[in-house]
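#onboarding

Welcome to the new folks! Below is a worked example of what a typical request in this channel looks like: someone posts a single protein sequence, and someone else replies with the predicted structure as tokens. Don't worry about understanding the tokens yet, we'll cover that in week two.

Example request:
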Amino acid sequence: MANSTVTECKEYLFKVLVIGELGVGKTSLIKRYVHQLFSQHYRATIGVDFALKVINWDSKTLVRLQLWDIAGQERFGSMTRVYYREAVGAFIVFDMTRGSTFEAVSKWKHDLDSKVKLPNGRPIPVVLLANKCDQKKDSNGDNSSNMDQFCKESGFLGWFETSAKVKFQHHNGWKKNESL
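Example response:
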């Protein structure tokens, strides 16, 4: 009998939502992550758009991230429940240069928590993305502790400053900015 060295590959498909107010950069972040592209000129998403990112996690694991780009004006629309269905995680995005988009974060989180749950009944994990950090205005000190506290109180896993305009490289688990 011949030795068989067939390696079984496990594949996973995860639906991840990307939500937030109109114009915060959701589409730009997705295009950067999936296609390594950036453009200043995107039209507003109407309803929902999709992107697929395939990740070779290791030699035996393939992960397919199905990213659902939900239109910023959809929060109170009747379709969000349908869009959110079967999601296993979400990113809520706000624009660091527009305070009103941060004020809307709690409303998005509440909408999400009220419409989708994991199979065990718990809320889906959500990460907060503070987008457009490349345009950040001079701030009065470090807001990291305030953001950490907000995330803890609001049920977010955590938060990250992001920019679709700036390319991020990963090095030993740390992110390093590299201007385009």
